[in-house]
Design brief:
The chain is mainly beta and about 350 residues long. Helix content is about 15%, strand content about 35%. It contains 3 helices and 28 strands. Strands 1, 4, 6, 8, 10, 12, 13, 15, 16, 18, 20, 22, 25 and 28 form a 14-stranded mixed β-sheet that branches. Helix 3 links the parallel strand 2 and strand 3. The relative contact order is 0.12. The N terminus is likely disordered.
């Protein structure tokens, strides 16, 4: 992997009003030096964002390792009380969600009635469906941590805290509101779905980087139709498939999400071959779509929007190469709409108001 790039060097700014296709920028005339200075000043805040992501990566790796050990111990002693294919209602059959999960065999459906449940629920059993009886009426203060599970679903909850998947396959997180914690996190997982969730106000940096939705060292996920606002990052993809011959391969489909009003909308960090389409990344404090630390061969388009962000609409750090951008829009951003420091990136049929480098 190429060396991590720790600073952004802004060389020049060129304003291209009404430009629909990226072309090589030229050095700015003297009167544009004020805008160049503003771009340089943005380095501090972008650097702080990167530092937060890197610090969170270390914390989440430690937490994931602990959860894997916990899952292994649970599976050695598990004695399910409910037959496969059965149904459990909380609190009628069991007083807590955790008690219901511990009693369930694979294939069990757990229905949680309206109420407040102060629990950090650990799920280590395959193919459990855990769903709120009425969407948004079962309030979990704490969250769900799911370790080493194949298949399953968490659906319809109002969660103050987090949903954390480690080493999972084909688990669906759907129709939840996740707030005031660390969001929805997938670590070392493959082929999961995160759909129709709202993730907001996640700012707890004690455990993890507080993104609305985070993917660490996993891939082939579908992240679709979510709303992520008022987080540090709306959607973060870091690294890729664990054990892959190319450990930075991501191969996630990220589509039709709203990532507005965060510090950054969508961030790809050392992640490859992701497909982004129809996302809105507007009015973020720093940047709409940000590719950094060797994020290569991603497909950005079509119809992503990155408007009215504080610094940049779309920003590619040096080393983020051979990405394709087609039919995207970036306009009205603070410094410029496209800032490309990578090589081999191609831009066709885009609507960029200004380009700088």
């Amino acid at each position: 992997m190429k060396r991590f790039i720790t600073t952004l060097t802004v060389l020049a700014v060129m304003v291209l009003l009404g430009c629909e296709k990226y072309e090589s920028p030229v050095a700015p005339p003297q009167e544009q030096q004020a805008q160049s200075t503003s771009a340089l000043d943005s380095k501090a805040s972008l650097s702080q964002l990167k530092e937060k992501i890197e610090a969170g990566k270390v914390k989440i790796e430690e937490r994931a390792a602990a959860l894997k050990m916990q899952a292994a111990k649970f599976k050695q002693r598990q004695t399910p009380q409910v037959a496969a294919g059965g149904k459990i209602t909380v609190p009628d059959d069991y007083a807590t969600i955790q008690e219901a999960v511990d009693a369930a065999s694979p294939g069990t459906k757990i229905i949680v009635k309206s109420g407040t449940y102060t629990e950090e629920v650990s799920v280590f059993t395959n193919n459990l469906t855990i769903t709120a009886a009425k969407k948004g009426q079962a309030h979990v203060i704490g969250g769900f941590q799911v370790g080493g599970v194949t298949k399953g679903k968490i659906e319809g909850f109002d969660i103050t805290g987090y949903v954390f998947l480690v080493g999972c396959t084909q688990v669906e997180v759907k129709d939840n509101e996740v707030k005031e914690g660390t969001g929805i996190i997938l670590f070392g997982s493959v082929s999961c779905q995160v759909k129709d969730n709202v993730a907001h106000d996640n700012s707890d940096t004690f455990l993890f980087i507080p993104s609305g939705i985070s993917i660490y060292y996993g891939g082939k996920h579908l992240v679709k139709d979510n709303v992520a606002h008022t987080n540090i990052v709306g959607i973060l993809v870091l690294g890729g498939l664990e054990g892959d011959t190319n450990p930075s391969a991501g191969k996630n489909v990220i589509s039709s999400n709203e990532c507005n009003g965060n510090q950054a909308g969508i961030v790809l960090f050392g992640s490859h071959e992701n497909d982004l389409g129809d996302n809105e990344c507007n009015s973020n404090l720093l940047v709409g779509i940000y590719l950094l630390i060797d994020s290569d061969r991603n497909k950005i388009g079509s119809n992503n929007k990155a408007d009215n962000n504080g610094e940049y609409g779309i920003l590619l750090e040096a080393g983020s190469d051979n990405n394709t951008f087609k039919k995207n829009r970036a306009r009205g951003n603070g410094n410029c709409d496209l800032n490309n420091h990578g090589t081999g990136n191609t831009f066709t049929q885009n609507n960029f108001g200004s380009v700088c480098s």
